[in-house]
Each structure stands twice: as structure tokens, then as C-alpha cells.
Amino acid sequence: MTATATRPAGSSAAAPEPAPPAKPPRRNLTGYWLLLPGALWLAVFFVVPFYSLLATSLYDPGGSVLEGYDMSWAFGNYVTAVQEYWRPLVRSLWYGAVATAICLVLGYVLAYAIAFKAGRWKNLMLILVIAPFFTSFLVRTLSWKLLLRDDGFVVDTLQFLHVLGADGRLLATPVAVIAGLVYNFLPFMVLPLYASIDKIDPRLVEAAGDLYARPFVGFFKVTWPLSLPGVVSGTLLTFIPAVGDYINAQLLGSPGQRMIGNVIQNLFTDAGDYPVAGALSVMLMLLILVLVLVYVRRAGTEELL
What we know:
Layout: H1 30-56, H2 76-117, H3 122-130, H4 137-147, H5 153-160, H6 174-197, H7 202-210, H8 215-226, H9 228-244, H10 247-252, H11 260-271, H12 274-299
Helix pairs in contact: 1-12, 2-6, 2-9, 2-12, 6-9, 7-8, 9-12, 11-12
């Protein structure tokens, strides 16, 4: 016998209780906390110095280190800087561009060889690339001064081969300055290039050959486009410090090869002309920033920024 539950007539089923409103998901702030140390570092060591430099560039040009400078919003300091020092500025851009182009050619060949041809010697070759960093920048540049001296092996050999005249020399010439820039900044080009080329699947290159592409065509259709992020990174990492460098021009060049870094250093430390030195520094930063933005946009790799 089955008992059947009966519901009183006129009563309706109990309506389900409404679910409590869902709590909004708690925002995860871990990422912002991780950014905090880097942001503080940039604020203390970049934003504050840049603000000080910008203020210095607008000081009264009539002041001095002993008497002090007044903030007079002297934008004419920028005009003075351009009129008096445009040649070292253009020279720095030219030297930086030439050194970057040479580093790109040499660095690409070296990175390609390490990535595809080095085999079990890959790690050793990478160590050799970064080995110059084991000593100081100054010592490395001084060693080039010894190599390129007038009575050295390099000059004697070039004179024997009639590449240089009997009284020809390398020191105190643009060749020496650019050679020093190439040597000191070549690892900055090789490492990003290697990181990009090493990711390329060799089967893609083989597939280009299977499709009857000549090696030259296969390189520019497959390898070069896939390595462009490394090319852009390497050229930026090389060009930016090369333009602002002053050690190579100081030790390997002459007053005729002064770069903008030498001018800024001289104005700050010897001449005591802080306003013009600050104006040159700000102009150099903004000029490089504009060049980098245009370059990255033309290269089509905005995601690198």
C-alpha cells in the first residue's frame, strides 16, 4: 500500500529562495605589487634626475657654478646649444649609425653561425661573445689604443700593404673611433640576434629549399623576416649607447672626432656651463627617442616597446 502525499487545495509550490548576489571577484593586485620595486627604482633614478636635468637646461645662462643659477625658463639655451654644437651632434649620430651597421653585419653572421652551425660548441662561442664584459670598458678601449698606435703591428702591416701611406696613422681618426665603438658594442648586437635566430625552426629553411628557393632567396624569405625582432632589438641596444658614448672618442680620437658625449662632459666638468650642457643632454635624449619610435614603427615591431 502506497501513501500519497496530498497538498491542500489552493496552495502553490514554495518559491525557491533567491540566490544571494554574487560577490564581485576580488581584484588580484599581485601584478601591481610586483611592479612596485621597478617603478620606485625608475622614479628615483630616472624621473627625478631627468626632472633635475630638464630644470638645469632652463637655468639663467648668466649664472655660474660659484654664484649659482636662477630658474629663468631660458629656452634660448637650446638655441645656443644647436648653434654652437650641431657638428658634434651630427657626428655622433653618423658614428653611431655606421658602427651599428657594421655591428649588424658582423653580429648577424656570428649569431647565425652560433645558432645553426656551432653544434656542441654553441655554449663556448656564447661565452666568448660575452668574454669582453669580464673586464672594464675603459681597459678594453685602452687596449685598442695600444693596437692602433703609430708604431704598432696593425699600422705597420697596413703601411706594408700600402693601405696606409708612409706617414699614415689610425689613431685620432674616425676609423679608430668607429672601430672602438664596434668592438665595445658588438655583444649587444650578437645576443639579441642569437636569441631570435635560435628560435627559427631549421625545417622552415629546408622547406624553402624543397620548394626550389635558392639559399639567397630562402634567407630573405624565411630567416631574415623571422629574425627581425632580434635585428630591431640589437640595433637599438647598439645605436643608443654608441651615440652617447664619449670614451672611444676621448681615447682613440682627437678634437676633430669629438662626439656629443665629450661636449656634454666638458661643459659639465670643465667649462661649468650647466644650462647649455643640460640643454644638449635633453635634446640628445629626445632626438634618440624620436628616432627610435620612427625606426620601430617603420620596422613594424611596435610590440617591442
